[in-house]
Structure formats: structure tokens, C-alpha cells
Amino acid sequence: MRPTYETIDDLRNERSVIEAFCNPFDYQYAKMPKQYHLDYCVLKQGKVVGFCEVKVRTNNHNQYSTLLLSLSKVSAANGLKEASGIRSILLVKWKDRFGYTYFKNDWPVMIGGRTDRNDWQDIEPVVHIPISEFKFVG
Fold it and tell me: What distance in Å separates the CA atoms of residue 17 and residue 19, rounded to the nearest whole number?
């Protein structure tokens, strides 16, 4: 079984990002079980209007030209859209900015990932999402 690297602080940071996104629009949110591979449902008056993956980064938004994301997240977003007709959004909090983009299928796919945990499963197919595709909040 693969170790879980997510900490209480990670979950707290993730929740602050979804709250910052939802509150101004009077959306609600619900944490999804791990089997869905994305973090949250976004709700309006109790109805699911979106699915959401949240990332918190420790660098500034313009430090890299792309954001790396596991291809499995894109696959999960596609599966949810196919099953429900509902789109998914990627929310990212960098050190200096907060932004979002909708999932799509034309991002370049390469092999990449983390090497700092010495976990061979961290190297996988990833998408490179151009930072220019993000809409910034605030």
C-alpha cells in the first residue's frame, strides 16, 4: 500500500483555498472521498455545479512557466465530466497569487514528478499547464 503524504496542515491549507474561491460567489463545498481523485464538489443551493482539485504551492506563480499536475487528476476530471456532464476546475494558491483554470485535454504530457520523497511512484505521466491559462483572483 502506498504511504499517504497529506498532512493536517495540507488539508487545512486546501480548505482555506476552496473557501476563498467559494465564499464570494455564495457557493458551498463538500470534501470528496479519495476514490474520486479530486478534492471537492462545488455546490450551489445543494446541487453539484463543479468538481475541484486544489493545489497549494510554495513558490511564486511566475517562477515556472507551467504547473505540473498528475495526469491521473486530468483523467479523474474527464471521468467525472463524462459521468455527470459537470466540469472540473483546478484551484492553485501560490505564495503570491491565487488562480484557477478549467480542466481540458490539450496540455502536453511528459514524465515527471517529485524526487524528494524517494518514492518511485512519484514519477509518473504529468501534464504541463501553462501559467498563462490561469485566471487570477484578486
Answer: 5
Q: What is the mean pLDDT of residues 12-34?
A: 94
Output the nine-digit C-alpha cell for 51: 468538481
Q: What does the alpha-carbon distance between residue 121 and residue 115 come to, in Å, rounded to a whole number?
A: 10
| Grid coordinates given for 85 | 456532464
Residue linked to cell 474527464: 78
To which H or E segment does residue 90 belong? Answer: strand 88-93
Confidence tier at 79 by pLDDT (50, 70, 90): very high
CA quadruple 100, 102, 107, 111: dihedral sign: positive
Residue by residue, DSSP assigns 32-73 as: PPGGGSS-EEEEETTEEEEEEEEEE-SS-TTSSSEEEEEHHH
* Domain annotation for the chain: domains and CATH numbers: 8-137 (3.40.1350.10)
Handedness of CA 1, 72, 114, 135 (dihedral sign): negative
